[in-house]
Structures are given as structure tokens and as C-alpha cells.
Amino acid sequence: MDSLIAQNLAQVHTDIAAACEAAGRLADSVQLLAVSKTWGPEAVRAAHAAGQTAFGENYIQEAVEKMAALRDLPLQWHCIGPIQSNKTKLVAEHFDWVHSIDRLKIAQRLSEQRPPTLAPLQVCIQVNVDGGSTKSGVSPPELPALAQAVAALPHLQLRGLMTIPEPAETEAQMRAVHAKAKALFESLRQQGLPLDTLSMGMSADLAPAIAQGSTLVRLGTAIFGKR
Ligand SMILES: *Cc1c(COP(=O)(O)O)cnc(C)c1O
Predict the structure, then answer these.
(1) 6 CA to middle of ligand 1, Å?
(2) Is the pTM of this model over 0.90?
């Protein structure tokens, strides 16, 4: 299993570099988040041995147990799944990043519960760019006010936006969705928010997301295999 994960990681880095080159971007301008949900500590350990340090998790309880088993490694943990109010304390105490802020109440709780001994929690706001009904995320009209409010909270640092586009029928549609996310990101920057992270792009839309300015792509299956 270990050598397969290393091979998959090498392939993913090749794909990211190719997409960057096609878009006229530097290969190191896109960060890889390895989505390790449902995989055990051994899989994460194998990916770390192959050079991966940032891992994404959706299920809080599962993630916290995994972190405990991997305490000996210098890993960075990103929460990318929906967060219920009763889970904010665990998230604030254990994660380095949260990509899935979609309402102020959750951000406020994370801010209050972040232990002052830890670095500020790095956060992205999840935005529902294409109006997909099955998933969470703030709607574009509500984004500017939420971003300003989150940016003002102590113990959090607002870094950018996260989006999970619905699979689109055509490449042009996909491109339009990514371009809209990029435009929202740039308009917040123009309002003075020092954002540097656009968390956009999964297996199915890696290249188009990178072409439209993604700075972080989230891949699970391509690295660890089918869940
Ligand atoms: C599961 C998940 C991913 C990774 O999905 P794969 O299809 O395994 O690459 C990326 N982003 C989010 C938000 C996820 O929940």
C-alpha cells in the first residue's frame, strides 16, 4: 500500500505541474491537500513518508482520533466538512485550518474556543458559487458581510474561499463556475481583505480550477484509492 500511495502522489504532482504549466503558473503556486477521510493512520503515515504534510478531513471525531495516533508527525490538519455547533470545540482545539465556514455563528464559536496557546485558526469561507442545493456554503450575495465579520474575529485568520462545484455538463459551464469563484475572491481582496487561498479543484476539475486561479486543490481518491 505504501508504495502505491507514493506512486499516486508522484502522479498527482505531475498532473498539478502540467495544469500549472498549461495555465502559465508556477508549479509551487498550487498546494496539495491530501483528503484522508475514512483512511486510517497508516495511510496518512505512508503519504507523509512520501513528502505530504497537509491532510483534509470531513468527520471531526474520526479526524481527532487519527491525529492522536499520529502525534509524532509534524502534520497540518484541515477541516473540510460541515461543522455542527456541538463540534466546534473539538475543531478549535485540534485543527490548523477550517475550509467550511458557512455561517457567522460557527466562526464565532471557533474564535471563542480556539485555545490562546495555539496559533490562530486559519479559515476559509465556503461559498456556494453555482447554487447547488445539496451542499452547504454561503450564497454569493451574503459573502461580503460574512467575510468582513469573520475577518474581525480574534483567534481566527481569514485566508480565503472554498468551493465545491457541482459536476457541470460542459467544460464551459465548469469554467464559468470557477471564474465566478475567482471573481468573488478578487472582489473581497479589493475590499481590503488580505486573502491568499482559493481552495478549489478536486479530481474531476483539477485542471480547470488551476486555470482559473485555484491555490489549493483537494484530492482523496487519486492518492489513497477508492473509499
Ligand atoms: C472528499 C472530499 C474531497 C476529495 O474527494 P475525492 O473525490 O476523494 O478526491 C475534496 N473536497 C471535499 C470537500 C471533500 O469532502
Answers:
(1) 19
(2) yes
